[in-house]
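Notes from hallway chat w/ T.B., transcribed later so I don't forget. T.B. wanted the structure written out for a chain they're using in a teaching module, and asked if we could keep both sequence and structure tokens in one place. Agreed to drop them here.
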Amino acid sequence: MRWHTFLRAAFWPYLAASLLASPPASASTPLEPGETVTYENRDRIRPWIPDELEPYVIDNFPDLHMTIVEPRSYRPHPKFVEATTRFACQATLDQHGQIQNYRAGEPFPYSDWAQEVTGHACDLRADDPHFGLKLAWNANFRWHGGGINMTRWAQSYWREATDKTWKISQGTYRRTHFSNRPDLLPDRTELVEGTDLEWAEYSEALHPFDLRGTSFMVLRYRDSVAREDDAWAYIPTLRRVRRISPGQKSDPLQGTDSTLEDFFLFSGYVWNEDWSFVREEEVVAAMDTQRTCYPLNVDGFSGKEERGVVGDEDHFNKCRFGPYDSLPFVDETWETRQAVVLEQRPRREGHPYSRKLLWYDKETFAPLAFVAYDQENEPMRLTWYLGDWSETAGRPNTSDRHVRLVVSTSVINLRKGVSNLMQFFGSSAEDMTANEAKRYFDVTRLKQRAH
């Protein structure tokens, strides 16, 4: 069972008392590799937990158990570095905030390595009038490894409003980037010649029976100002494919608090949001998990399974998560990282969020966490991403991609005190040929694959 009740009335007096009894450690005392942080010495880790997130992650959680490891470099793929150098200073913004003249690499050099390899010719600085927006574009065009392939994910979900029982669903997911691909240099940066796609993604639920066959496909176009996403859903109970409007992509999916727009912290239109830089800060992040969780803990899992059921709820529950039974603050390895904090304010009227704070790793712009606020500016959702490094993952189709792979994510409904946990520790950066990609991301497959 995946649920957790957050007792606000009991929490705040307890927090106040604990802070008075145990003053925070100084941030000037570095964390040491090999250190273990538990509930008893949790003040040790406070300087590296953002203030906005601290109340939800280390307090009122007796099972807190974090192992500190040596910080490492996760420098992106050499081709991404090469593209950053080769196309430096070319990217611009138009009157809409849409990126122009961008080929590949980090568009606006801000990461230390990017500024170094471009000889500081066009460093992105805080006095830039579009500082926050350009950082958001850097996050959008971070090195993705060409795409991500989850032959099996499993997720806890709430069946319906009248059924308080949490269930486990399974499915498959794939996102492939069609353009701005530095790994295809020196010949090209497009997977499909002349493509107008930035990326395409497909997700399908395979289990349990009442969700089986539910699938989504989203096509993101390179010029999303001129052409908004094409997005479809196949709902087996309706026996038809229907289009998804932009507003629906911020709606919860399949009884969970996950949304299409919140994938990887943000998967909406960068130009259609108001972005601001909040700060840069040193935090702890779970960059390279050493755990073997679902589906890697299923005997015989090969990473090629795309149909049928893989494992069961016992496999899903084997690895401990918490608090909220979904965050990675138990039995996980952590290292200090420099993070970029952005604020996103939706422009669309009727959006459930008034604003969202997002934490990205500065070296890679990989997603770390976000907290979203409702229209009354109260905390509404918290999301945390757990990853591993392709070069040490030891799985097929991950080596020589030099990318931080997402292997788990959690979404907490802070108003209800319940959560969704998604695990996909078998994810890879397996690539596709142009012909394979064109066949795979074909809307006619939605209904065909659902049977």
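Follow-up for T.B.: The radius of gyration is 21 Å. Might be a good example for the class.
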